[in-house]
Design a protein that fits this description.
- With 218 residues, the chain is mainly beta.
- It has a single domain, classed as Sandwich (Jelly Rolls), CATH 2.60.120.
- It is 6% helix and 52% strand.
- The strands form two sheets. Strands 1, 3, 4, 6, 11, 12, 13, 15 and 16 form a nine-stranded antiparallel sheet that branches. Strands 2-5-14-7-8-9-10 form a seven-stranded antiparallel sheet.
- Strand 11 and strand 12 form a beta hairpin.
- The longest helix has 13 residues.
- It starts with a helix and ends with a strand.
Length: 218
């Protein structure tokens, strides 16, 4: 584990509140008022894997809410490398998380997604859509290694906005893409509250319009 990852792991641990004291989910995060060319407030970059950590900044986009989105803009190729942008408040384990994403470029990959129940840079769940492969996949990442739990093949045109939702409730995970429910899968690896994050892969240049977090009642 490199020094940057060690420091970020320590920061995540320090930021995590005790049981029963974590931050309640925020209704929505948008980037309309964020300064262009800078990372958004309340987010921190993270990397799973080796290689470049990516570069996350707010960019202008007429199709995004308020005319701005956050994007991973580095085109430096690396495989395997998974840049993430973490929303730092810890949220409940049972949540529905939604974003709108748009693949812009990438020779190796054109992917973007959402991570939930993120414990540290090496342990979390992630759902991602890939424009080059034409599919949506759901993984668990344990000790930095991905294991696919479910997936669906369907068009994910680059240069277009797509809405992606991941519902996590107990051991059940449901993925919805452009208002179409794709699959539900069960897994019990991570049950605790954690962070949520935007996720990309390798040289993917991907934009994210917003982040909506909703608690799911028992």
């Amino acid at each position: 584990m490199n020094l940057g990852r060690l420091l970020l792991t320590a920061a995540l641990a320090a930021a995590a509140p005790s049981a029963g004291a974590w931050a309640q989910p925020q209704t929505a995060v948008t980037f309309a008022d964020a300064p262009a060319g800078q990372p958004p407030v309340d987010f921190e970059p993270m990397l799973t894997g080796d290689g470049p950590s990516g570069r996350w900044v707010v960019v202008a986009d007429n199709g995004a809410a308020g005319g701005k989105a956050v994007a991973q803009v580095s085109t430096e190729p690396a495989e395997p490398s998974f840049p993430l942008l973490i929303y730092m408040p810890t949220v409940l384990a049972d949540i529905a998380v939604t974003t709108a994403l748009k693949a812009i470029a990438g020779r190796i990959d054109q992917a973007g997604g959402l991570a939930v129940r993120l414990q540290n840079p090496l342990n979390y769940y992630v759902v991602r859509a890939n424009a080059l492969e034409g599919n949506v996949r759901f993984y668990k990442v344990v000790g930095g290694r991905r294991e696919q739990l479910a997936g669906a093949d369907l068009p994910v045109p680059a240069g277009e906005w797509h809405e992606l939702t991941l519902r996590a409730k107990g051991d059940q995970f449901t993925v919805v893409f452009n208002d179409r429910e794709l699959f539900t899968v069960a897994d019990q690896t991570f049950r605790s509250p954690g962070k949520v994050a935007f996720w990309t892969k390798a040289d993917s240049v991907t934009r994210f319009d917003r982040l909506r977090i909703e608690p799911l009642t028992p």
